[in-house]
């Protein structure tokens, strides 16, 4: 007799011999004991987990002379015929080669007749997902209401390809991957039964390559036994299967974590010396980093990782020296770089470049931690500036005039607490009263220098009654002329002068600037005949009032004003000039609003603090769209926002 491979020799004959499917085995045994076996069963799962084996054991249990029973005897004629594959009442069909509607018709014709020698007719269709749609449809009615003497059992590795109409007529049993511990124990028992001594490390290599499939591991064991003989060692298993020792992968991973590129290249050269497949190597290395990440995440990684305890201990010890952020960043770089090696004409070069990029990660710090550090630095700088500013008034106390010391503190506070012309001023007490740094508010926050100048100006007066202080604070600053309301509301940014010639020269560029944001508005601006600048008023001239009607309402003039202020950085007001008798006056509210926003931004407390810390000045203010990408805005209908067109 020819040699029988382990996958066939060790095929389970009873439910107790099935490896790793305890839940399904218990369910089937209970169904047999209670007489609740359905007429249609479908077993699904990856290759080599026992789908067809369970179907054959169920056939034995149903047709056993002592049954139906959860424990077939394997000694009666029915059990022996099924085990030998010679039972005339067991029809095992390959769905890949018998997938047409004609084969299903022949099957339906056959099951009409009673069993020949057994109790039931058993129909097993392996890889049932390969049947055609017509074959499935032809099987539906028979599967739903089969004869009492027929049982259908299906096996498939791709359950999602089976029609829902078939699944709804069957009880589904999804077989799981077999765990590492169960596979290792099963392979060790088989080696002992064959009279072969095998190292635990060698068994772990076979289990790792089996990936939860019992049959795959048995095929590998056959190959290993043929190469190694009676003594199987881990090194020999790695050689015969073309594997790289787990220690080599671990050394390579530790070298990358330590930033030792020279050592990492040496390990890579050793891997190539073994002749390992590039995809297998990439998978092994990424899996090693995955295990390390899980050990960083969980205090009990054994719940998530199906690894030997010594391997988990090594990963846990290594995880204590590196943060999760560092390992995760390194894993992402390797994942991106090693994936490119699959499609590269020079995969080794791609892997080496990925290693060089990975070792440069270093000790990665979270962005939140960096922001906290930056806040501390800025807070320290602000405290230092505050200390310097508070020390200056203390030095000035020595030169305070004697008349100022006679000011009652209560009277001074009452004089400053009353409102004066929408202006709120907090004036610190002098002569023995602790001075505090405060801001003066007038339509926004002013610089502290304004307050100090007002205080020094107030101290020069010999009489400090309420009227004197109020008059001084409401009046112009020391050394300045009385400013008009327009000058008080002037733009806070100091700009260079832009003349008429500059406006005309830059006008085409401004139209392109507007086109990136609102194409329809740029098209309207192109219709202008000319543009002039007079007394900070940018006048756009049109021949007909219909050309500018679209721009003159409040919403559009506001956007256009924002664009002009952002582009030219000048405190313009916009106006339209029309040659005909039509009217195209600008809504003043829409034109003024962007200028107010610019002033509010310049006087924002954060801006003032930044200017004080960095000793800088405002160069430009932009309140319009930040990016140059075109704004998706439909061209509004003419007159939609025009009151005259309604």
């Amino acid at each position: 007799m020819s040699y029988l491979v382990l996958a066939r020799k060790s095929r389970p004959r009873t439910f107790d011999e099935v490896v790793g499917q305890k839940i399904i085995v218990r369910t089937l045994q209970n169904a047999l004991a209670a007489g609740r076996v359905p007429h249609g069963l479908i077993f699904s799962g990856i290759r080599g987990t026992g789908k067809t084996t369970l179907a054959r054991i169920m056939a034995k249990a149903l047709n056993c002379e002592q049954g139906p029973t959860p424990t077939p005897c394997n000694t009666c004629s029915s059990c022996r015929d099924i085990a030998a594959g010679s039972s005339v009442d067991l029809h095992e069909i390959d769905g890949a080669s018998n997938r047409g509607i004609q084969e299903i018709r022949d099957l339906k014709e056959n099951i009409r007749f009673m069993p020949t020698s057994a109790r039931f007719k058993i129909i097993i269709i392996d890889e049932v997902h390969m049947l055609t749609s017509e074959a499935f449809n032809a099987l539906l009615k028979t599967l739903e209401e089969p004869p009492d003497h027929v049982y259908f059992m299906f096996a498939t590795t791709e359950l999602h390809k089976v029609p829902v109409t078939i699944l709804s007529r069957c009880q589904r049993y999804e077989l799981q991957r077999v765990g590492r511990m169960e596979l290792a124990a099963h392979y060790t028992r088989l080696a002992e039964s064959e009279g072969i001594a095998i190292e635990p490390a060698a068994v772990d290599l076979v289990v790792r390559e089996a990936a939860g499939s019992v049959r795959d591991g048995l095929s590998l064991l056959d190959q290993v036994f043929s190469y190694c003989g009676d003594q199987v060692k881990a090194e020999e298993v790695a050689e015969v299967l073309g594997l790289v020792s787990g220690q080599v992968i671990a050394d390579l991973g530790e070298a990358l974590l330590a930033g030792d590129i020279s050592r990492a290249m040496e390990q890579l050269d050793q891997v190539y010396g073994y002749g390992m497949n590039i995809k297998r190597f990439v998978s092994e290395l990424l899996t090693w980093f995955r295990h390390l990440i899980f050990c960083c995440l969980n205090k009990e990684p054994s719940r998530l990782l199906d690894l030997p305890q010594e391997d988990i201990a090594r990963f846990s010890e290594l995880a204590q020296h590196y943060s999760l952020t560092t390992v995760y960043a390194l894993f992402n770089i390797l994942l991106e770089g090693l994936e490119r090696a699959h499609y590269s004409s020079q995969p080794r070069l791609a892997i080496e470049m990925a290693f060089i990029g990975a070792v440069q990660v270093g000790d990665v710090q979270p962005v939140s931690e960096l922001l906290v550090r930056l806040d501390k630095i800025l807070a320290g700088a602000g405290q230092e500036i505050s200390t310097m500013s508070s020390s200056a008034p203390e030095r000035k106390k020595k030169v305070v005039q004697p008349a100022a010391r006679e000011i009652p503190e209560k009277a001074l506070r009452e004089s400053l607490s009353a409102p004066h012309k929408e202006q709120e001023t907090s004036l610190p007490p002098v002569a023995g009263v602790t001075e505090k740094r405060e801001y003066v508010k007038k339509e926004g926050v002013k610089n502290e220098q304004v307050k100090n100048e007002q205080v020094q100006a107030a101290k020069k007066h010999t009489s400090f009654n309420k009227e004197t202080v109020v008059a001084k604070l409401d009046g112009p600053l020391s050394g300045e002329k009385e400013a008009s309301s327009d000058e008080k509301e002037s733009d806070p940014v100091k700009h260079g002068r832009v003349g008429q010639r500059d406006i005309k020269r830059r006008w085409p560029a401004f139209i392109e600037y507007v086109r990136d944001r609102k194409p329809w508005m740029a098209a309207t601006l192109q219709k202008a005949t000319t543009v002039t600048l007079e007394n900070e008023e940018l006048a756009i001239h049109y021949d007909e009032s219909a050309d500018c009607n679209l721009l003159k309402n409040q919403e559009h003039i506001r956007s256009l004003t924002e664009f002009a202020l952002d582009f030219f950085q000048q405190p313009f007001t916009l106006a339209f000039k029309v040659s005909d008798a039509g009217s195209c006056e600008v809504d003043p509210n829409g034109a003024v609003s962007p200028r107010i926003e610019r002033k509010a931004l310049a006087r924002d407390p954060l801006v003032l603090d930044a200017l004080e810390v960095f000793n800088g000045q405002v160069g430009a203010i932009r309140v319009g769209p930040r990016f140059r990408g075109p704004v998706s805005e439909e061209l509004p209908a003419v007159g939609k926002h025009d009151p005259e067109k309604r």
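The longest strand covers residues 150-156. The radius of gyration is 44 Å.
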